[in-house]
UniProtKB/TrEMBL annotation:
Organism: Streptomyces smyrnaeus
Gene3D superfamilies registered for this protein in UniProt: Chitobiase/beta-hexosaminidase domain 2-like, Glycosidases
Pfam families: Glyco_hydro_20 (PF00728), Glyco_hydro_20b (PF02838)
Entry keyword set: Glycosidase, Hydrolase
UniProt-recorded name of the protein: beta-N-acetylhexosaminidase
Class of this enzyme: hydrolase
Length: 539
C-alpha cells in the first residue's frame, strides 16, 4: 500500500480502518450538514473558506437532534459535523461511506482536527489555496483519533527578526495542518520590542527597530547596514489571536524579563540599572547573544511591567502568559547599590534569589488575574520550588535538556518540554558546509523525530502526567524572512507534530517514507519552502 491517502496521514491517527465499497465523491452536489452545537458554526465557516472544497450552493443545513438531514429529494451526499460528548478534548471519530463523511468531535476542536484528517485523505491539490472546483474521491474508512498531549506547540521569535502579520497568519494555517494547538509568540528581546503598548509608546517607537544587524559569526566583522524593524499593533495581535482561535490554536505571548530586555531599556532608560550604567544613550541591540543589560529590581520597574502585562492580558485571552526568565547575566545587579539594597530589604541570599523574587512577583500577579505564568527553566533557580515558591499553576518550559522539566514536575508543576538539542529549529539540519544556517549543533529530521518528551524518570516516578506536551522553538537570529523560517521549520515541524499528537511511530524510516510520499507534496501545494530531504535548497 502506498503511503498516501489514509495511509499517508501526518501526524498518524490512532486507529485507521479502510473499508470496501464505493468511494465518497466530494463534488458540487455535496451538502454541508452541521449540528447546532457550540463552536461548530465557526468550524463550518472555516471549511467553507477552503475554496478548493466544493459544496452545494444553498448552504449548510442544521442537523436537528440526531434527525436525518432534510433532503427534499435533492441528490448528493453530505459532509456532517457533530459533537459526541463521549469523546475527550480534541478527539474525533471519522466515518466515510459513499453517502456521507461524518466527523464527530469531543468538542469543536476535535471536529476541526478531524477535518484536517479528512483533508489529508484528499490529493495534495486539496491543500492549494484555490483551484479548479473538481470532484474529490475518498475511499471508505473509519478513523478514531485523539491527541497524546494537550500542548503541541511552536514558538516563533519575532523579536530578532520581525515577521509581518500575513506571514504569521500563513504559519498558523500550517500549524493547523499539523494539528498543533499552541503558538508561542516571543514578542520582546534585546534586539526588538514587537507589541504596541499604548501606555508606553516608545517601546515600539524606539524599541521596535534597530540601526543595523550583525550577520555571520562573532569573529566576522560583517554587518547588514540596513535598519530592521516592525511591530504589531494591538489590532494586529487581536486579528492573529482570532485567526488562531478559528483554528483552535492558543496564542501564548511572551514578554521577557528581567534579562533579554535591552530594547525596552533603550526605549525607557529608567528601566535599567542606572546607578551602574548610563542607559540614556543605549540603543536597541544590534549584536547576537545575551546582552548584559537587565531590568532594575525597583518598585517603579515592577509597576511598569504590570502596566505592560495589563495590556497583554487585554489582547491575549490565553490562560498561559510567558515571562521569559532565561539567560540573565547578573553582573549589573552585583554592582548596583539599588539591587543590593533590595536583596537586603527582602532578606534574599543573592542575585539568583533576587531574580526568583521578581519571577514570583509576576507569577502571583498573573495568578491573581486568573492566568498561569510560564517561564524558561532558569526560573527554577534561586529558590522558586517548594515552600514560599511559585504558585501551583506556574509552568516551566524546559529548554536546557530535560532536567529543569523533571525537577519542576517532581515539585508539582506542569512542564512543556522543548529540549534544545532535539527541537530547536534554528539549528542546522545536516553537517554539510552548504547548509545555510551555521548555528549550533545539528538537529536532523531524525533527531527531531526521536525526541522523547516524557523522560523515563518521570514515567517511573509517576509524574509523567505533569508533561503538558512538546514544543519546537524557532529563534530567528539567522532567519530574516518567511522563506528562511520555512526552511528551518519544515519538514522538521511535521516530526514534532507526529510525536506530540500520535507518539513515536514504528521507525524513523517509516515516517520519512510517509513524509516523502504523502506530506511533502501537501507542503508543496501550500507553497512551503521546506528543506528537501535530499539536501539544501540552492539559495
Ligand atoms: C537560547 S532558549 C535562547 C535564545 C536564543 C537561542 C539560540 C532560550 C530561552 N534562550 O535567546 O535565541 O538560544 O538558539
Amino acid at each position: 500500500m502506498s503511503a498516501t491517502g489514509w495511509a499517508g496521514l501526518v501526524p498518524r491517527a490512532r486507529d485507521v480502518r479502510e473499508g470496501d465499497g464505493p468511494p465518497f465523491v466530494w463534488g458540487s452536489g455535496t451538502a454541508l450538514v452541521v449540528e447546532p452545537a457550540p463552536g461548530l458554526r465557526e468550524v463550518a465557516r472555516w471549511l467553507r473558506g477552503q475554496s478548493v472544497l466544493p459544496f452545494r450552493e444553498e448552504g449548510e443545513r442544521a442537523l436537528d437532534d440526531g434527525g436525518a438531514p432534510d433532503d427534499e429529494g435533492a441528490p448528493g451526499n453530505t459532509v456532517e459535523l457533530r459533537l459526541d460528548a463521549g469523546l475527550g478534548p480534541e478527539a474525533y471519530r471519522l466515518e466515510v461511506t459513499a453517502d456521507r463523511a461524518l466527523i464527530e468531535g469531543g468538542d469543536a476542536a476535535g471536529v476541526f482536527r478531524g477535518l484536517q484528517t479528512l483533508r489529508q485523505a484528499l490529493p495534495p491539490a486539496a491543500f492549494r489555496r484555490a483551484g479548479p472546483r473538481c470532484e474529490w474521491r475518498i475511499a471508505p474508512c473509519r478513523v478514531q483519533d485523539a491527541p497524546r498531549f494537550a500542548w503541541r506547540g511552536l514558538m516563533l521569535d519575532v523579536a530578532r527578526h520581525f515577521m509581518p502579520k500575513d506571514g504569521v497568519l500563513r504559519l498558523l494555517d500550517l500549524l493547523a495542518v499539523h494539528k498543533l494547538n499552541v503558538f508561542h509568540l516571543h514578542l520582546t528581546d534585546d534586539q526588538g520590542w514587537r507589541m504596541e503598548i499604548r501606555r508606553y509608546p516608545r517601546l515600539t517607537e524606539v524599541g521596535g527597530s534597530r540601526s543595523r544587524t550583525r550577520v555571520g559569526h562573532r569573529a566576522s566583522p560583517l554587518w547588514d547596514e540596513r535598519p530592521h524593524g516592525g511591530h504589531y499593533t494591538q489590532d494586529d495581535l487581536r486579528e492573529i489571536v482570532a485567526y488562531a482561535a478559528e483554528r483552535h490554536i492558543t496564542v501564548v505571548p511572551e514578554i521577557e524579563l528581567p534579562g533579554h530586555s535591552q530594547a525596552a531599556i533603550a526605549a525607557y532608560p529608567q528601566l535599567g540599572n542606572t546607578d551602574v550604567v548610563d542607559t540614556s544613550a543605549l540603543e536597541v541591540w544590534t549584536d547576537w547573544g545575551v546582552s548584559p543589560q537587565l531590568l532594575a529590581p525597583t518598585d517603579d520597574v515592577l509597576r511598569f511591567y504590570e502596566h505592560v502585562l495589563e495590556e497583554v492580558l487585554d489582547v491575549f485571552p490565553s490562560p498561559f502568559i510567558h515571562i521569559g526568565g532565561d539567560e540573565t547575566p547578573k553582573e549589573q545587579w552585583r554592582a548596583s547599590a539599588v539591587a543590593q539594597e533590595r536583596i537586603a530589604r527582602e532578606g534574599l541570599r543573592d542575585e539568583d534569589a533576587l531574580q526568583a523574587w521578581m519571577v514570583r512577583h509576576f507569577d502571583r500577579w498573573l495568578a491573581e488575574r486568573g492566568r498561569r505564568m510560564v517561564g524558561w527553566d532558569e526560573i527554577l533557580e534561586g529558590g522558586t520550588l517548594g515552600g514560599d515558591g511559585l504558585t501551583p499553576g506556574a509552568v516551566v518550559s524546559s529548554w536546557r535538556g530535560y532536567e529543569g522539566g523533571i525537577a519542576a514536575a517532581e515539585a508539582g508543576h506542569d512542564v512543556v518540554m522543548c529540549p534544545e538539542h532535539e527541537v530547536y529549529l534554528d539549528r542546522r539540519q545536516a553537517p554539510g558546509e552548504d547548509e545555510p544556517v551555521p548555528l549550533g549543533r545539528v538537529a536532523s529530521l531524525q533527531d527531531v523525530y526521536e525526541v522523547r518528551p516524557v523522560p523515563a524518570r518521570l514515567a517511573e516516578s509517576g509524574h509523567a502526567g505533569r508533561v503538558l506536551g512538546l514544543q519546537a522553538n524557532m529563534w530567528t537570529e539567522c532567519a530574516e524572512s518567511s522563506q528562511r523560517v520555512d526552511y528551518q521549520v519544515f519538514p522538521r515541524l511535521a516530526a514534532v507534530a507526529e510525536v506530540a499528537w500520535a507518539g513515536p511511530g514504528h521507525s524513523y524510516d517509516e515516517f520519512a517514507e510517509r513524509l516523502a510520499a504523502a506530506h511533502l507534496p501537501r507542503l508543496d501545494a501550500c507553497g512551503v519552502e521546506y528543506r528537501p530531504l535530499s539536501g539544501p535548497r540552492p539559495w
